[in-house]
Amino acid sequence: MAVCSFLEMESGASVLHYFLGVVILESLKEPGVLDHRATIIEESNIAAPPGDPYPVWSRRLVRVPAESMWALATDISHHMTEDFYNHFVDDTTLVVVFKSRYFVLDKFDKTTWQPMVEYGKTVRVGPEWTSSIPITAEF
Q1: CB-based contact 21:32 (threshold 8 Å)
Q2: Which residues contact 39 (CB under 8 A, 6 or more apart)?
Q3: Is residue 117 part of a domain?
Q4: Is residue 2 part of a domain?
Q5: pLDDT tens digits, 104-120
Q6: Helix (H), strand (E) counts: the chain
Q7: What is the Cα gyration radius of the chain?
Q8: Do the Cβ atoms of 29 and 78 come closer than 8 Å?
Q9: Is residue 105 part of a domain?
């Protein structure tokens, strides 16, 4: 699925197209993979699920230019640990990144999500997480 780098406004002017994403720093073996490729919009800490080895997760809401999204998703997938996913959305697309693989999905058509949900199980991310990924910009 191709995503255009620019969107046309009614006036005919172009604006840069971005993805918004949530990245959990504990999911990355090398958090520096985000440096100079994603703009951190908000930093917060959230309580991890019960039994997680990390009691608190360092959550980052980020903005990524569309033209950088695929390279960043590839790099993140190479630096991720099992037990986590990170995700990014634009107006129509959901990008879900796991260890060693990422998926580009129609965010409104959950029938396209099944291969991602199945892969998630192989890296210890259960369907209770992957079948309900937030798809709006209000993370």
Answers
A1: no
A2: 62, 63, 64
A3: yes
A4: no
A5: 999 999 999 999 999 99
A6: 3, 8
A7: 15
A8: no
A9: yes
pLDDT at position 138 is 62
**Residue-by-residue DSSP string for 43-96:** EEEEEPPTT-SSSEEEEEEEEEEHHHHHHHHHHHHHHBPTT--EEEE-SSEEEE
Residues 6+ apart with CB under 8 A from 129: 85, 120
CA pair distance 83, 98, nearest whole angstrom = 9
Q: Which two tokens stand for residue 66?
A: 């569309």
Q: Is residue 4 part of a domain?
A: no
Encoded tokens for 15: 């604006």
Total domains present in the chain: 1
Distance CA 86, CA 102 (A): 9
74: Cβ–Cβ under 8 A, 6 or more apart, which residues? 102
Mean pLDDT taken over the chain: 88
Residue 42 has pLDDT above 70, yes or no: yes
Gap between the Cα atoms of 90 and 96, Å rounded: 12
Q: Does 132 have pLDDT greater than 50?
A: yes
Nearest 10 degrees: Cα torsion 125, 119, 62, 24: 30
Domain span holding position 49: 16-130
Give the global pTM: 0.86
